[in-house]
Design a protein that fits this description.
By secondary structure, the chain is an all-alpha fold. The protein contains three helices and no strands. The chain has helices at residues 9-22, 31-65, 74-95. The protein is elongated. The relative contact order is 0.08.
Length: 104
């Protein structure tokens, strides 16, 4: 999902991340705390679902636009979705400096 539609996935991730930080300080029994808790939980589900839908639609569009005799492998493209999510979960924290070790 890109900025063409008015928001990016980074905006959604930052919103869910901020809501999850806020749940540490607001009790979920109150109105504000319950709303923030719902954003933290269900916002992540909605964001993940939107990413999966966007990437799946990209694969389907690629299949429809590829000529009949041209090679296109939708299975490898589907595995690419899994690889993208693996990268975002495992490699981005490593690149941000959280898991860096000091080399002497």
């Amino acid at each position: 999902i890109n900025a063409e539609y008015g928001w990016t996935t980074d905006d959604g991730f930052c919103g869910v991340f901020a809501a999850s930080i806020a749940t540490a300080f607001l009790p979920p029994t109150g109105a504000l705390g319950g709303g923030v808790y719902a954003i933290a939980v269900y916002g992540g589900v909605v964001l993940f679902s939107a990413l999966m839908l966007y990437q799946t639609q990209s694969i389907i569009k690629g299949c429809e636009r590829t000529p009949y005799n041209a090679p296109y492998d939708p299975i490898s493209a589907s595995i690419g979705i899994l690889h993208d999510h693996y990268k975002s979960v495992c490699q981005n924290p490593a690149n941000s400096g959280q898991w860096k070790t000091k080399i002497k």
